[in-house]
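Annual report, structural modelling task.

Input specification for the NAP complex:
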Amino acid sequence: MAAKLIDGKALAQQIRAEVSGRTQALKARGVQPALAIIMVGDDPASAVYTKHKVNDSTETGLAATLERYPATMAENELLARIRTLNEDPAVHGILVQLPLPKHMDAHKVIETISPAKDVDGFHVASAGALMVGQPGFWPCTPHGCMKMLESIGYDLRGKHAVVIGRSNIVGKPMAMMLLGKNATVTICHSATQDLKAMTLQADVIVAAVGKRNVLTADMVKPGAVVIDVGMNTNDEGKLCGDVDFAGVKEVAGWITPVPGGVGPMTRAMLLVNTLEAAERAAR
Ligand code: NAP
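The model returned the following structure:
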């Protein structure tokens, strides 16, 4: 194997330990950092994700509550509940688990969360703050990817980063974060004509597509850093990323695995954002 592994699981563990320490310090000042999670409906994947979020929080000393509502809940009712949480000084972070039932306007719901408590970083104010380089909450997945690059001491200045995927929660904020570190950034998507021509120029490749083998060894410059955000299932029904790991690891300089890469980092960064929300409120 030529590439070195960026171990997201180990790094996430380290970050959780830091969160625990900072949480203790805040508690000593009488502030209990708290996250309110809202789930509407009974999507099984959302049930698993929200359970993880509660467990991750309590394990690091954060308080977390999960409010579950039936899929028939009226949108107005949900908005009213969010407004109440916005006003509650004991709640520092608010997270509404997506997807929401079809009768709800997810954009309107997210925009109702106070930007000061938007620990998912999905609010337009959070996206705007990232765009103009002001303090705000960064979405957890790209934020976790940046931490992984930081962990290997990678200097992005002047490097060419190619981001495959342009979703509002991963691809676009990822590109902004890389740009903020003075990388030259190319964003690719489904209409990109020659993806390979782009990726072959890249010093850093972030794959955030949701399709297996979007990135294969012949598309990677030797020594490049490859970050795999994708979550797919392989023929055996096991979790895999967007990157052909077996092939690409022979060419890349650094690579993140799936599982054990971006996934645990995403979970860890929610804890960081929640803690930061509490620290900011306590200032
Ligand atoms: P998304 O909203 O579906 O976006 C996928 C992006 O990929 C779109 O921009 C799309 O282009 C682009 N795309 C599709 N086919 C392509 C192709 N053949 N070549 C180049 N680009 C292509 O997905 P997302 O929410 O960003 O998530 C992406 C992946 O990351 C999914 O597998 C998701 O499960 C995973 N994910 C993982 C974590 C984690 O914690 N590990 C967190 C979030 C997401 P268009 O815009 O042109 O349609």
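The two ends are 48 Å apart (CA to CA).
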